[in-house]
Structure formats: structure tokens, C-alpha cells
Write a structure and sequence with these properties.
Distance between the termini: 68 Å
GO cellular component, one term: ribosome
Protein name: Large ribosomal subunit protein eL32
Helix content: 10-25%
Strand content: 5-15%
Radius of gyration: 25 Å
Number of helices: 3
Structural class: alpha/beta
Shape: flat
Order of helices and strands: HEEHEH
Strand order of the largest sheet: 1-2-3
Family: Belongs to the eukaryotic ribosomal protein eL32 family.
Organism: Methanocorpusculum petauri
Keywords: Ribonucleoprotein, Ribosomal protein
């Protein structure tokens, strides 16, 4: 099953299409995000081949791997260290929530490494450094 999932993930990556917005090259201020062409005389809406492809039903990922990370793991969003206990390390990887602070993030990362769970968005743990002692502080004591 794992080899079939990897094959499907490679196939999903191979057919990744870029859909460009109509008149993108004509106006600098337009963002490169897809917007459906709605004009009455629009060549792109009428599916002229030279005007670019539309996102359609053939471009989606296979149903068997929908929701999978490109690494082959199923993604789970985690906010607490207790959320890691019901996760299967062989098939699932965790993504730490954006609103999680530094202390809790460090606790989640250490617990994930002990359980053998892959973290998709690890950050380097910040260490607390004591302030250097100045001459004035020494003389006050």
C-alpha cells in the first residue's frame, strides 16, 4: 500500500498545472491568482486554446491520497502535547498550530521526537540566556 501511495503522490506532483489569470501580463497590479473569466467576449472563458487552461475536474488529486502531505504522511494539526498520544507515527505527521507559543511548541516537539512522530513545521527551540553581569551590579552586592 505504501508504494502505491508514493506512486500516486508522484503522479499528483507531475500533473500540477499553473492557471494564470486573464490579462495578467497586461496589468502590473493584478495578482497571479486564478480568477474565473466572466467577460461576454472573453476568449479564455470560451476556451480558446492559446488563452490558457481552466481548473477543471481532471486536475484534482486521486481520492486515495487527498489530504496527504508530499512526504507521504497524513497531516494532523496539533495544539497540545496531549494531542500526540492518539497519533499513529507510521502513517501520520503533525503540524503544530500557528497560535501555539514557544514553550508549548518546544514541549510538543520533544514529545513528538520521543514518540517517533514527524513534525512538518519544526522550529529551533529558543534557549533562555541569563543577562551578563555588569560591573555596577557586582559592586551593588
Amino acid at each position: 500500500m505504501a508504494s502505491e501511495i508514493k506512486k500516486l503522490i508522484r503522479a499528483r506532483a507531475a500533473k500540477k498545472a499553473r492557471f494564470s489569470r486573464q490579462c495578467l501580463c497586461a496589468k502590473v497590479k493584478l495578482a497571479d491568482t486564478w480568477r474565473r473569466p466572466r467577460g461576454l467576449h472573453s476568449k479564455q472563458r470560451k476556451d480558446f486554446r492559446a488563452k490558457g487552461a481552466h481548473p477543471e475536474a481532471g486536475f484534482g488529486a486521486p481520492a486515495a491520497i487527498r489530504g496527504f502531505h508530499p512526504s507521504g504522511y497524513r497531516e494532523v494539526l496539533v495544539f497540545r502535547p496531549a494531542d500526540l498520544e492518539e497519533i499513529d507515527a507510521a502513517t501520520t505527521a503533525v503540524r503544530i498550530g500557528a497560535s501555539v507559543g514557544g514553550q508549548k511548541r518546544a514541549a510538543i516537539q520533544t514529545k513528538a521526537t520521543t514518540l517517533g512522530i514527524k513534525v512538518l513545521n519544526p522550529k529551533e527551540a529558543k534557549t533562555v540566556v541569563a543577562a551578563p553581569v555588569t560591573e555596577e551590579a557586582k559592586s551593588d552586592e
